[in-house]
TrEMBL record, chains A, B, C, D:
Protein name listed in UniProt: Transglutaminase-like domain-containing protein
Pfam families with a match to the protein in the record: Bact_transglu_N_2, Transglut_core
InterPro entries named among the record's database cross-references: Bact_transglu_N_2, Papain-like_cys_pep_sf, Transglutaminase-like
Domain Transglutaminase-like, residue spans: 161-225
Taxonomic placement: Bacteria, Pseudomonadati, Pseudomonadota, Betaproteobacteria, Burkholderiales
Annotated organism of origin: Cupriavidus yeoncheonensis
Signal sequence segment: none
Length: 285, 285, 285, 285
């Protein structure tokens, strides 16, 4: 088990009489992730409506008046990913997928899998289905796209990335998701906070990774290869980035870049260690 | 109230040892649409798994063996759309939208609303919010796009349509949905069977239309302008066409074009009339 | 040397009072291709203005009145491609390229080389420059794109093809041209008539191939791999298909598909043989 | 007549053993623009090869060694645009266009006119042909696109701009060019240095504007509306920005933003005045 202390500070300056915010920044509560303690502070104090959707996304809706708005969330979170042997994981035929997983086969805003069928079949169609095919897709994306900050923007989709071959974690993930879906492997995006990111990547940040459905469960892979996946604290889960923006803002608002901190809390006596790299498949639900 | 007799025949030739099908062709059962009688016939007889999702889409999952597969569905369906006065309908601020409606503000595969913000604000931002603004969007789309069969394909999205200005009902709908979302008006697609289509459009076919969320409910508009909306029999409901293909096919399969029939059954004594054009807003749920 | 008899029949029905046509269908006259005899017949007889541009494209401009217009061109053409040893051909540094070749480094309508820099460098940047690198690009395109009639249209560009991986000769050529330019290798399109096309491709048709500039000259490669390049009769030369449409039509005109015939005329006594496959580099100017 | 003093400073740091540069920064010499004096200074002194193409673009080709490279060009330039009455200018039918103007009807990298036919015909097809239709296109672009620095990049094309409706001068120009070509009006891009730019636009910069072919000559329009067109000093002329980059760089080179100065030199005694706004059509050749 791993324990992480996470905090995020968001700062806004609302310029209209009121501004509306939909935020997904709180730690998700799932079978493998529990919140030990948490606190949300809004300055000035305003009401926040809360909603947790079926994917465990914890949506905060806030209406605030003209002027500054600061949002601070801090939490101590336990994560306990199960590690499975990739060799044992199989792709699930469409005929046997749970019905609520079928929607992760369809193309979405940033994952135009419908346009990548021929490519996916040519490149990966001949491989033996299973975790190692999925891992081969992850490796392909990691090896054919260059991590390049600010080379893309919030409109960039998998189509752009397969052409231009540069991007950030979100672009790597969208491309990997699109390829999986083109092969009829359900895939979706998880946004997380990344402990253990390559320091060359700079300050901690929200980090987008991929989940694929194999052998009845969702498994996590990081096609950008910059994180230690066992140290990922889950925030949101969705079909792609369009489903889980950390902040959707309505009205004229100036935003500062979010400030995020994350630290592991090791307590060997309690069986709590540091997140470590693993070659196992990481089961996230 | 209106009563419609609807049937669809699908014909496939499966070339792999097995083929998998996800079909959404049965009449939805909603508060405003009820199924009087129905029958599904599969030839050869094969098992079909059924699932009705939260949007009332009735998914059929079929695995069939090599060879021909014929699917026939026929039903008698009552629809009873409520007609409201458009003048009374208002847009709902983001701060007051039901949480499960928020996802219809996000961009999706065929409705890249995130790229149309400036256009939408310039063209419609100054109009008074409400049904008539939505109707103005419908009129704009109808007047700026030409209905042209076979000018587009299943990869065509709202971006393509705003550039090329030709398309079929699905393209009209994707563009209207994208514009609405860019203005923070929740919008989605309904696939239906169209009684009353302009005979110039040829044989009855699946018909894509738009639903927008106003004053707490969903209202139906047809931006292609070829249907009598009160005569639309609902099949599917989703964020866009990616969510509700009438047939998603996995494996090597030859398809024939679906053959659809639809007829009104008038029974004045029972208060059952013919679908009529209306200038009222049509509430669909 | 090879001798080919070529004819093309174009049929139009002009529906406006007049229709304007810009045609590039006549055999080009170059250092390696000479016209033994030719005849152009317009029915009804109308005036045709002629213009031969610096790339030897023979433009016909015709204004015709309402009604049918038939255009027949037939020619006997000698082609005498020089065969060079690919091993001896080198890429020319930008600093040494002829000035009038520089424009073939720039992106064009259907060859968005500016978006493929990273891809081209990753895939081909480490190879030794020269004919064999260009040949490797040709092989990559041939092996990663599927020839599929009617899978694309006249709006399809190299970007689409690298995503969707299907197309016809023109799409193969645009993709190869874009990759070459991304590596600073001048490349352009030649439209031709193809003797020796794989019969599976059907009737003779206009065929798009690629020319690259190496060692001071232009060399021809066919990335779709369906032709015998020594049997290609040159019609047009340009940056991409936008420069050399066989017919640009202005006004409301109904077109029939062009009907093309091409046959080799062998005359061994005169040293005239049949076009043969070759592994040599084919110098076209 | 107007006289302008223009200078540009370019600063590079070459990181490979050598770097190659293709520059188009010198004042064009045309029938309406003459160079009174000019000086090019390269530091360190390196050879520059020169080439003036048929469109009067003055290409400089430079190969420099590792280390810093500074390029300074300064000139005094007289411009004498002829002002014509727009009412007298007509569109030229395709059948009567000079042959070397026909290429400005074709789509190009950043001006995908082939995808905008329906839009152009709907919006402008019913207007009376001539200068005022062209002016209406200019007004449409200016009124439907927002000038927004850094909202676009060097990959942005007319398709993107008609969707996203933001951009800089180059984007405005590409969109206007595409619309003109879709209506069979020859159009191309001129890059210039802008005296008289709205000071809100910041320091002087290269400025992209449009030329259209009417009544036998080329006329200049600025769809971004930020310049005084009579004060534009011509640098380059081409089908779109792909033809006339002010600097194309080959090799690993760090670039600073070019520093440009431009000032009018008034000398009333010699008949040399300040550039003034005009409602006349500006003939540029």
């Amino acid at each position: 088990m791993n324990r992480l202390r996470y905090s995020v500070n968001l700062s806004y300056e609302i310029q209209d009489p009121t501004g509306d915010f939909l935020l997904i920044v709180e730690a998700a509560k799932t079978a493998r992730q529990s919140v030990v303690s948490e606190r949300l502070t809004l300055t000035p104090p305003v009401d926040a409506a809360r909603y947790t959707d079926p994917l465990c996304n914890r949506l905060l809706r806030i209406r605030a008046n003209k002027g500054p708005l600061a949002i601070r969330y801090e939490a101590v979170v336990d994560i306990d990913h199960r590690l499975d042997d990739g060799m044992s994981l199989t792709e699930v035929p469409v005929a046997e997928l749970p019905f609520d997983v079928l929607s992760y086969l369809a193309p979405s805003r940033y994952c135009e899998s419908d346009r990548m069928m021929e490519f996916a079949m040519r490149e990966f169609g001949g491989m033996r289905p299973g975790y190692w095919r999925v891992y081969a897709i992850r490796e392909w994306v990691r090896n054919h796209v260059r991590f390049l900050s600010r080379s893309t923007n919030e409109r960039t989709s998998a189509i752009d990335t397969i052409v231009e071959r540069t991007g950030v974690c979100r672009d790597f993930s969208h491309l990997m998701i699109a390829i999986c879906r083109a092969l009829s492997i359900p895939a979706r995006m998880s946004s997380s906070v990344d402990y253990g990111a390559d320091p060359a990547m700079g300050a901690p940040d929200f980090h987008a990774v991929v989940e694929v459905f194999l052998s009845g469960g969702w498994y996590l892979l990081d096609p950008s290869g910059v994180s230690i996946p066992t140290g990922l604290l889950r925030i949101g889960t969705g079909r792609d980035a369009a489903d889980i923006p950390f902040a959707a803002i309505f009205g004229k608002v100036e935003s500062k870049r979010p400030f995020i901190e994350i630290q592991p809390i090791a307590d060997p006596a309690a069986g709590i260690g540091l997140p470590l790299a693993t070659t196992s498949a990481i089961s996230t639900w």
